[in-house]
UniProtKB/TrEMBL annotation:
<keyword id="KW-0479">Metal-binding</keyword>
<feature type="binding site">
    <location>
        <position position="62"/>
    </location>
    <ligand>
        <name>Mg(2+) 1</name>
    </ligand>
</feature>
<comment type="similarity">
    <text>Belongs to the inositol monophosphatase superfamily. CysQ family.</text>
</comment>
<dbReference type="Pfam" id="PF00459">
    <property type="entry name" value="Inositol_P"/>
</dbReference>
<feature type="binding site">
    <location>
        <position position="216"/>
    </location>
    <ligand>
        <name>Mg(2+) 2</name>
    </ligand>
</feature>
<dbReference type="InterPro" id="IPR050725">
    <property type="entry name" value="CysQ/Inositol_MonoPase"/>
</dbReference>
<dbReference type="GO" id="GO:0000287">
    <property type="term" value="F:magnesium ion binding"/>
</dbReference>
<feature type="binding site">
    <location>
        <position position="83"/>
    </location>
    <ligand>
        <name>Mg(2+) 1</name>
    </ligand>
</feature>
<dbReference type="GO" id="GO:0046854">
    <property type="term" value="P:phosphatidylinositol phosphate biosynthetic process"/>
</dbReference>
<keyword id="KW-1003">Cell membrane</keyword>
<feature type="binding site">
    <location>
        <position position="81"/>
    </location>
    <ligand>
        <name>Mg(2+) 1</name>
    </ligand>
</feature>
<feature type="binding site">
    <location>
        <position position="81"/>
    </location>
    <ligand>
        <name>Mg(2+) 2</name>
    </ligand>
</feature>
<feature type="binding site">
    <location>
        <begin position="83"/>
        <end position="86"/>
    </location>
    <ligand>
        <name>substrate</name>
    </ligand>
</feature>
<feature type="binding site">
    <location>
        <position position="81"/>
    </location>
    <ligand>
        <name>Mg(2+) 1</name>
    </ligand>
</feature>
<feature type="binding site">
    <location>
        <position position="62"/>
    </location>
    <ligand>
        <name>Mg(2+) 1</name>
    </ligand>
</feature>
<dbReference type="GO" id="GO:0008441">
    <property type="term" value="F:3'(2'),5'-bisphosphate nucleotidase activity"/>
</dbReference>
<dbReference type="InterPro" id="IPR006240">
    <property type="entry name" value="CysQ"/>
</dbReference>
Amino acid sequence: MKKLFAETIAIAIIAGEKILKYYKTNIDYVLKNDFSPITQADLESNDFILESLKSTFPVCSEERFISLQERQRGEYYWLVDPLDGTKDFIAQNNHFSVNIALMKKDIPIFGVIYIPAMKKLYAGGEIGFWGLKGEEIKYFSLSPAWEKLQRFYYHQYPRSQFIGCDSKFHSTDTGVNFFKQYQLRKMAIGSSIKFCALSLGIADIYPRFNGSKEWDTAAGDAILRSVGGFLYDTKTQEILRYGKEDLKNNFFIAFSPRLKDIYKEFLK
């Protein structure tokens, strides 16, 4: 599997570079049926990823939905968000990413999040937490090999106040009240970069009290699981599960390893 994972990381990098061709320009977009924006960068990244992965397992993408039956016809399938954080991309604030997750029986076992504008890449799952930064990313895409990745670790940095991630565009009143109730210091981060912050120990908790889809969370979930964190489904009161026909997530709270023994304190 490591060879496949390395190749998938290279695919995410190349997709990210395709996205950057449209960045820092006058970005045109249209609204989809759910009123979320889509750009040519979304579509080009999506087409490239689908073409690159189609010979492996079924691919379900934000821009190319496939049914639950198609996803589950074998043991594995992919969940892809070719440009997570399109609003951030349009706002040109660097907080957007390419997300690719490999699912095994509806469980995310590997995920890669590439942040092209920051030249940062994070990958993880059952094989641990890995990544790349800067020029190493370019060289990896030219010749992908698992041995070229750096091993990353979760660090429990000392602090007097827990840090919570919040969206730049999707804050809710419930979320604002949650931050006040638990006296969290707010860190505004776009797209799936929030999961990277939790996995690195930069932040501690991420409450999501509005709509999301499985392709929004699967890659970050796999990475967070690799260091001992998890996503808690506030409706079922269990670990967030995948494999729903409509791919809609319930509201959830993502916890870093720092909070794994006291997470119930945040459910009151």
